């Protein structure tokens, strides 16, 4: 229950409280009083909630996520067994065998399920679970932090703003407008990033942070700087803050824990070896094609024109080296230009599209690509690659 409830220090023997207890016992008081904060700072609506929403924090019921949007079929990491209301802000979870301590500046605590909005939800890649802050105000200044064991090779991060469960809940709850990601590295080094989420950033979308300087990461803190207010609730939500761990080196190239089964490490696998993208194609026996489309010039936003060349990547027998070199060059160029990429739901809610977050800085920049991801059988695979030889700049 938030601090906005029971203003004025109402005592247990107050006649109004006694009357309320009687009404609750008879079922005459509609919804639970463990409601989230509404825009005026008071309790949530007392009537029946709209479809897809509840008055418990405004975060929606625990219904299954829409098909095609779940980033992992396997169950997410669980909180430690003794995690209760008193330690809801700090929990330890196991992610691909690595112990991660997750700490939050505050947590929205629901009386019926104290850990429902806890920070452990940030690591499970499940759009049906979120962390929600529980402090007064807009949520600006609230933060979450991941702490790792010594010498943990953390390769990248995937940050999902807001409540991604549905477009309605995404708009109803507050979400980050701008956030700072601070990485504390070995030997006292640091990396800082500012993540911008424009108003039209889609529900279920995420920013992928791909830093080229590979150091062991001690901790990663994400601080919300400014906020897009919710249309109905003050609770600020964050859908995911997922680290990607490097595994053993394989022929001088890194492998990643959780590849194929979960989306974030599979993105890292692609970024590390884009010219080997054919290893990330769905099994040919699945019957799911993987299309390669080549363009000479396309807009940064909006629909693509018809491709100049198109192939089923399962059946390319010649000329692949040309496309793989272009793809490797474009991903490298985009990484040099800016280490931030966007992941947005594909049209029709079937998978995701991954590409650079900004258009090239110069007309001659060869730094763009688009990769289409879909869940096939029990894993995430590349089902399309758009090789962009040149993309229009913002000034074109």
UniProtKB/TrEMBL annotation:
Domain NAD glycohydrolase translocation F5/8 type C positions: 99-237
Protein name per Swiss-Prot or TrEMBL: Discoidin domain-containing protein
Positions of the UniProt region annotated as Disordered: 31-87
Low complexity compositional bias, start-end: 64-77
Family matches, as InterPro entries: Galactose-bd-like_sf, NADase_transloc
Cited Pfam families: NADase_transloc (PF25302)
């Amino acid at each position: 229950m938030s601090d906005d409830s029971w203003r004025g220090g109402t005592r247990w023997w107050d006649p109004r409280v006694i009357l309320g207890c009687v009404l609750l016992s008879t079922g005459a008081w509609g919804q639970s009083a463990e409601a989230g904060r509404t825009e005026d700072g008071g309790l949530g609506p007392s009537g029946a909630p709209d479809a897809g929403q509840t008055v418990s924090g405004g975060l929606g019921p625990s219904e299954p996520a829409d098909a095609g949007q779940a980033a992992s079929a396997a169950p997410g990491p669980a909180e430690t067994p003794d995690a209760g209301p008193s330690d809801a802000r700090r929990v330890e979870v196991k992610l691909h065998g690595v112990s991660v301590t997750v700490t939050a500046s505050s947590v929205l605590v629901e009386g019926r399920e104290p850990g429902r909005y806890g920070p452990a939800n940030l690591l499970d890649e499940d759009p049906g679970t979120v962390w929600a802050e529980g402090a007064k105000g807009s949520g600006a200044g609230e933060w979450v932090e991941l702490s790792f064991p010594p010498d943990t090779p953390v390769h990248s991060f995937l940050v999902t703003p807001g409540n991604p469960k549905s477009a309605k809940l995404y708009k109803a709850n507050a979400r980050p407008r701008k956030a700072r990601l601070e990485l504390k590295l070995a030997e006292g080094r640091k990396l800082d990033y500012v993540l911008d989420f424009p108003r039209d950033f889609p529900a279920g979308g995420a920013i992928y942070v791909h830093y080229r300087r590979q150091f062991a990461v001690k901790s990663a803190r994400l601080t919300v700087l400014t906020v897009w207010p919710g249309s109905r609730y003050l609770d600020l939500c964050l859908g995911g803050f997922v680290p990607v761990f490097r595994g053993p080196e394989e022929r001088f190239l890194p492998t990643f824990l959780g590849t194929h089964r979960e989306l974030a490490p599979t993105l890292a696998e692609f970024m590390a070896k884009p010219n080997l993208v054919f290893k990330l194609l769905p099994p040919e026996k699945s019957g799911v094609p993987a299309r390669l489309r080549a363009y000479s010039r396309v807009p940064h936003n909006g629909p693509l024109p018809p491709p100049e060349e198109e192939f089923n990547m399962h059946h390319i027998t010649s000329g692949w080296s040309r496309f793989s070199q272009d793809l490797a060059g474009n991903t490298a160029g985009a990484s040099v230009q800016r280490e931030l990429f966007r992941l947005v739901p594909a049209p029709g809610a079937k998978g995701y599209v991954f590409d650079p977050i900004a258009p090239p800085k110069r007309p001659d920049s060869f730094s763009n690509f688009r990769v289409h991801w879909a869940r096939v059988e029990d894993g995430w695979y590349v089902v399309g690659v758009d090789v962009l030889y040149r993309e229009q700049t913002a000034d074109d």
